[in-house]
Amino acid sequence: MFVFRNHTIERFFPKDYHFSGYDDVSLVPEQEEGYVWFYQAPIGYDNAAASEEIAADLRKFLMVLETVNPNKTVIAFTMTVIYSLSFTDDDLRLKEAVGKYNAGLISASLTHGNLKVIDIEEFTSRYPAEDLMDWKFYLLSQMGMNPRLSASFQQWFAKKLDEIALKRKKCLVLDLDNTLWGGILGEDGPEGIKIGGDYPGKAFLFFQLGLLELSRNGVVLAVCSKNNEQEVLDLWVSHPFLVLRKEHFAAYRINWQDKASNLKELAEELNLGLDSFVFVDDNPTERALVKQLLPMVSVPEFPVQPYELPVFLKKLVEEEFKVYSITEEDKAKTLQYQANAMRSNLQKRFDDFNDFLKSLDMHLTVEAANEYNIPRIAQMTQKTNQFNLTTRRYTDSEVKSMLEKGWKVYCLSVADRFGDSGITGCAIIKGNEMDTFLLSCRILGKGIETAFLKKVLQMLRKEGVSEMNATYIPTAKNAQVKDFCAGIGMHCVAENENGEKRYKAFLDEMDLSIQEFYHIEVK
Amino acid sequence: MRSVFQTDDIDETCSQRNCEKWDSMNHLNLIVELEMEFGVSFEPEEIAQMRSFDEVVQFVKSKTA
């Protein structure tokens, strides 16, 4: 990564980063994998001149943004005033200039998908103003921030990079008594529990409102509670002040079984890995049990006093669930996972599996990559672990450059009578090599993977491709696709000691027919 | 000094003259780390005089004594 800067800030970035000269935008090195723009407000006493300089900084940034390869990520920090001296109260020029600069960054990000804007104040607001600067080091060497903050800055920046790479936990499993409401339902009864109204009910109400917003941002909520199931189901229907009810949870385990076993079952039912789970429970014994038996589950400490919940929620979101941005598909996650659970209930009622599939009334849409679905395609390559043939991770920019190189990139949307799962699969073909083939696990179990791949191969055959090669690259999580290629009629031609398998097939020799109950549309 | 300069090639004879990694940037990094480690603060004049391993040890000792 290459950092454009106007102060001495090397200490604040990883050792392998490169840096521009001070306020030097004349050189934009091409071989860098990405760019960081970190300009700090000028320090001086002539606020008119400083304001003009800030305006010029934005123009320089926009020029650099237009110069760099649009397939490469540019991370721009907003600007904040660390030190200023106004000689009159009505001199707000510096504030105004910084505001315009930041607004300029944000509006540029609307038209440049490769630009990610990071709010520096999320970091600086943790410290009082006098701790942010160390004048000795500024005057000795233009150090734009207190050098003692570099370790915590680096930590924060690494977290931001993860958020840009869309790494986060997927599912929040919640206890009920003394976690989502005050008191114990089985003892205090539906009228006795504390939710809504005055404190402490108000604190739990706020907590539930926050969790509702979290689920609207694509985090799946589930319940794991020791209670009588029927009492909770009745409460979800009848209690006037509850925010989170049955429909907000993708799945639940309300019983007297140990919570570790329940979490395992929830993971299976939702088709999610336990390492994407966060478990919130007020009872330290339950937390200890889960920590010990399921170390991959993240288990935060829970506050003792209900008035500490807002701080707890903020920390929970920032540490476990925050990402740079989310897609439309993410927002409807809970509904999709719920529809899944309904499908599996229905499945039990059919003896013949094909009858079941027919009854689902599945509609598959295969679409070539375009500017609207590329972010989702990249996101799937980043997040899909289980049904993923090669587990190659790509950014938006990399997908775009594939198209420029003539690779074929397709995505799959799936809808059935229970709902629309949105874009949930993708295939990337480089000539006659299958670079990537993946499906989100929530649509598995319906033969969609075979129908999708066959459709893609049919389309390639029409375009004159005669031969297809594929590789299965084993990971800790993708054992289920080990024999997928063989299953659709490709031949395994090599296997190495790591379990990596090479497949080959001539498209004319393959049976590419697809069952008629998959209604497939090509866009 | 080894962690700041990212080299194992440090001994008592090391100085700004003979150590390539001991440039002005790393000099300040060293000072910051020493200040944090020993809970002390060096004056700019002192910082300018800490040009060798021995001088660094001497200033740290005088501050912590």
Short description:
The complex is a heterodimer of chains A (523) and B (65). Chain A has 523 residues and is of the alpha/beta class.
Q: Look up the CATH topology of chain B.
A: Non-ribosomal Peptide Synthetase Peptidyl Carrier Protein, Chain A
Give the domain tally of chain A: 3
CATH architecture of chain B: Orthogonal Bundle
Distance between the termini of chain B: 21 Å
CATH topology of the largest domain in chain A: Rossmann fold
Spell out the helices and strands of chain B N to C.
Answer: HHHH
Classify the secondary structure makeup of chain B into a structural class: mainly alpha
The count of strands of chain B amounts to 0
CATH architecture of the largest domain in chain A: 3-Layer(aba) Sandwich
- Averaged pLDDT of chain A, please? 91
**Quaternary organization:** heterodimer
Taking strands numbered 1, 2, ... along the chain, how are they ordered across the largest sheet of chain A? Answer: 15-16-14-13-12-11-10-17
Q: Largest protein interface?
A: A-B, 13 and 11 residues
**In total, how many domains does the architecture of chain B comprise?**
1
The CATH class of chain B turns out to be Mainly Alpha
Helix/strand structural class of chain A? alpha/beta
Low-pLDDT runs of 5+ residues of chain A are none
Write down the CATH class of the largest domain in chain A: Alpha Beta
